[in-house]
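Tutorial handout. Part one gives the primary structure; part two gives the three-dimensional structure as tokens.
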Amino acid sequence: MGKTPLQLYKELPSTEQISAGDRSWHVKLLRRMLAMAGAAPIHWMNPAVDVDWHFDDNLLTLVHAFQNANGLPVSDSVDDACWKKLAEACETAPVGNGDPLPAAGPARDRVARRIVEIAQAAEARGIREHGSNSGATVRMLLRHAGLDGAFAWCMAFVWAVVDLAYFLEQQMPPVLEPVQKRSCSNLVAWARLHHSLIENPLHAQPGDLWVQRGGETGFKHVGVITGVSGNRASTVEGNTNHRGSDEGEGVYAHARPLDDSQCVVVRL
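Part two.
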């Protein structure tokens, strides 16, 4: 699993005092920890967002507010006491509150558009299995997800699309362990931890992932959202068929309901 800001903080041999005007990796960590503690924009928790490394005036305002709310001296620096208080706040912060993530900026928008383009191109190619969960293209998708053999491959398809989109946009994709790339339920658990889960699917956007509820583990199927109209999403999905099965034989386009009783949305 990708490491949370709190985990990264705990692995530091020592904390570095940073001050307004500084530019460093610690400033990025500060932004992500403030977001995790509920004291900064929530999309800074999204690993797809490349947060600013500059300790600017806007960040200083958030730091002052955090210091004041937590009984710390209000200053233009983040010292060891402030780091520790921030870590405590992260420990007790609610995770995955279901609020819609704000737009992540031009870089994320480009990745989202690329995700849509690649998914639509894959659907247009008419990718099909040759044998159950098999065939050259399906095996390639499964191997990309770290699987050797015949397995359900809707997640493998999605991750091939997402990884290629980030590669073409020269961006780093979210860091997930193989287990999160093979299971819809594990993906949702990761997204909830990293504030990338949108519990209200009506906030879906093109480039997001539509994750269907059901199955023994709570979620059973996933696809790429290519368009949104009211309470329905256009999707492209692997391991489905023309009827919308979650155990099909190819890549197809579907129209899916954006109903929180049937699905959640993940924004990477």
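Part three, for discussion. The chain is about 35% helix and 15% strand. The CA atoms of residues 10 and 87 lie 9 Å apart.
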